[in-house]
Structures are given as structure tokens and as C-alpha cells.
TrEMBL record:
HAMAP family: Ribosomal_bL32. This is Large ribosomal subunit protein bL32. It holds the Pfam family Ribosomal_L32p. The gene is rpmF. GO terms for biological process: translation. One of its GO terms (molecular function) is structural constituent of ribosome. It comes from Alienimonas californiensis. The lineage of its organism: Bacteria, Pseudomonadati, Planctomycetota, Planctomycetia, Planctomycetales. PANTHER family: 50S RIBOSOMAL PROTEIN L32 (PTHR35534), LARGE RIBOSOMAL SUBUNIT PROTEIN BL32 (PTHR35534:SF1). Belongs to the bacterial ribosomal protein bL32 family. InterPro entries: Ribosomal_bL32 (IPR002677), Ribosomal_bL32_bact (IPR044957), Ribosomal_zn-bd (IPR011332).
Length: 60
């Protein structure tokens, strides 16, 4: 069975894992109300998506 000859150093291990870091999801302004929202998601503020209102906003 193959066994590593030397222990993997912290630097080598961390260099290999450097691309695994999480990135923030892309955010775009809503074309209707202008609030920041995730892309390809109905606006939580006004319910607008793809040129039409899908969810009615609650006015409380």
C-alpha cells in the first residue's frame, strides 16, 4: 500500500485549499424599487421579477 514519505506541511496544504474559500452571492439592484437583492430571485421588498410582480407586498 502506498504511504506518504513526508508529512504534508501546513503551507502546502493551505495553498492547495486556497481556492475553496466561499464567495458572497452576486447582488444586483431591483429594477422596480432599487433595493439590493440576489440575482435570479424575486425582490423581497416589492415582489418584482422578470418584468412583472409575482408576490404582492404586505403594507403593514
Amino acid at each position: 500500500m502506498a504511504v506518504p514519505k513526508r508529512r504534508t506541511s501546513k503551507a502546502r496544504k493551505r495553498k492547495r485549499r486556497s481556492h475553496m474559500s466561499r464567495t458572497a452571492p452576486p447582488v444586483a439592484p431591483c429594477s422596480q424599487c432599487g433595493t439590493a437583492r440576489p440575482t435570479h430571485v424575486v425582490c423581497p421588498n416589492c415582489g418584482f421579477y422578470m418584468g412583472r410582480t409575482l408576490v404582492e407586498a404586505d403594507d403593514e
